[in-house]
Amino acid sequence: MYPATLELRRLVRAAAGDIIVHPGDANAGTVGTAFDILSGFLLIDDYVPLNPPTSHVWRPVYGLIAQRLTEYAHEDKAGRATDDDFYRYIWVLAELASIVRGGHANPDSALEKAVRDAAGIDALLGITPDDGIRQLRELEAVAAEHLYPHLEPARKAPVAFPAVRDLVQAEADIIAGDMLLDFKSGTSAPHQTTGARAFFPTSADIYQILGYALMDDPDDGYGINAVGFYAARFGHSSVWELPQLLGITAGGHAVNVDAARAWFRSALEADYNAVLSNIMN
After folding, report:
1. Pair 240, 227: CB distance under 8 Å
2. Which of 94, 168, 206, 270 is deepest in the core (most CB within 10 A)?
3. Of 141, 106, 109, which is closest to residue 124 (Cα–Cα)?
4. Which helix (H) or strand (E) segment is 226 a member of?
């Protein structure tokens, strides 16, 4: 329904400019998740990054660790300028979040080894690579200049969508005022000639933020009217009013937001019913 993304992605790439925070040896996916969690702690007083129900994936011990690390992070964030432990708490929480998102734990991971050995908090914190701490500190410094001061005080994170809770699991990074912002910590590979890196969102990234906004219920949801990206390594935000983004991705045609939300929900329901039917048959 909304195929026109290439020109939009090119505009975002050009606007993002030069990279500020370079990747390193630390796992890029974990760095990205850790930055999301870091921002939650710094922006929201009662932030709880992980609280899934106990299941075959999310074991009780994970919940206990997450609860304790969340308490420690809130207590220690004021002293983070001279103490790296805050960033270690964030890193372990990010490793735990990967279990939820991936649907399984890696039995060979450093996290799982520390959990199996019942080695205590210090051993858990020891899985954090030095380069992970370096990148988180640099990403925070960039966000402190280019992102955090510009967000409205009314914030929610992480964000689920009650209107479609029965149809899909979806969780956006943050809503500030009426704007939904998705944090992106990725970067392109170095250019073959110049070595330069760029922020070039994929079509899936565009559809992701559109999907989040269309899952919002205007009557009892969050009142999302604008969506965008924050390119964390570049310190750049790209934000569009929802009707504007829908129009751009629809090839310049005007799109009714309410009609788009109704269509999107019906598509989710059709997919859900098809999957349920296959399971039952």
Report:
1. yes
2. 94
3. 109
4. strand 226-231
Write out the two tokens for 250. Answer: 């629809």
Structure tokens of 251? Answer: 């090839």
Q: With left for phi above 0 and alpha for psi between -120 and 50, is residue 195 left, alpha or beta?
A: left
> In the chain, which ranges are continuous DSSP H helix?
6-16, 28-43, 60-76, 85-102, 110-116, 121-125, 130-146, 203-215, 242-249, 257-280
Query: Residue 210 in contact with residue 229, Cβ under 8 Å?
Result: no
Q: Is residue 135 part of a domain?
A: no
**For residue 156, what are its two tokens?**
């929610």
- CA dist 29 and 21 (Å) reads 15
DSSP-based three-state secondary structure for 117: coil
Q: Are 210 and 246 in contact (CB under 8 A)?
A: yes
Domain count for the chain: 2
Range of the domain at 18: 1-22+152-281
Whether residue 157 is found in the same domain as residue 277: yes
CA–CA gap between residue 84 and residue 76 (Å, rounded)? 10
Kindly report the three-state secondary structure assignment for every residue of 49-95: CCCCCCCCCCCHHHHHHHHHHHHHHHHHHHHCCCCCHHHHHHHHHHH
Q: Report pTM.
A: 0.90
Q: What phi-psi label fits residue 160: left (phi over 0), alpha (psi between -120 and 50 degrees) or beta?
A: beta
Bridge partners of 121, per DSSP, are none
Whether 270 is covered by a domain: the verdict is yes
